[in-house]
Amino acid sequence: MRRLIVNADDFGLTPGVNRAIIEAHTEGVVTSATLMANASGFDNAVQLAGSTPSLSIGCHILLVDGAPVSGPQQIPTLTAGTDCQLESSISRFAVRAIGGRINPVDVETEAVRQIRKLQAAGIQISHLDTHKHTHIFPQILPPLLRAAKTCGVCAIRNPFGRIAFSGVVTRPKLWKRYGELMLLNPFARSFLRSVRAEGMITPDGSLGVAATGEVDERLFRQIVENLPEGTWEFVTHPGYNDSDLDRVATRLRASRETELEILTSPAVREDLERSRIELISYRALA
User: Fold this and answer.
1) With 14 labelled, which of 20, 23, 110, 251 sits at a CA distance of 20 to 30 A?
2) What band does 223 get if pLDDT is binned at 50, 70 and 90?
């Protein structure tokens, strides 16, 4: 059996991103989305989520980029030297995390506050993931799992997975990303051990991570056609490249509209049905 969760990240980033995610769900193949607690489009996303109960909503934990929900004095190792903002560079965050310079208590504190903000807004949280996949680091995962259990969340993204090398080899823009993920793949076993030890649920892995920002319909179909047995997640970022997005620090702009077209394409849905791939949500998994 092959099952696929199609998750839209960055719900709450802007009204245009929010609208695209809802369209990708109601008119396409997106089954789940993860909501950012500290983004400018949060209230709009909550309103849309309330009118779209079939969409499974998770929390997109931010430990890099933007302002924290906690006061900076409560999480000093996440905001140190960044003018009360979270670290903006994932590379610097990785160095500090691996070097033991991020206090796990700070991670747990901020994660709990972000999750609780969604719950206070009436969101029934089905799962967690992290912005820029920061829970891929073994030093970050345990406090996130504790935060999830504290807040009653039982599922989390598995950021590791198969990478379609044949789809990457002809795309030089993806080579660096592919190499970075290959270097991090040794953490996959410890990830699964930690998740299982906490009694939490996770898919068999994620797809599309290496191709973020470069996905077109051909690559999407190629990845899906090679879907292994089991339950997998396809990570997506649909949105509208509008004036609101211009005011946001993100490298994903035109690619968001490309992904929206893919996710709402009748041909993509037909491919999934022809391949006998069952679309499920994180709510169904949990």
Assistant:
1) 110
2) confident
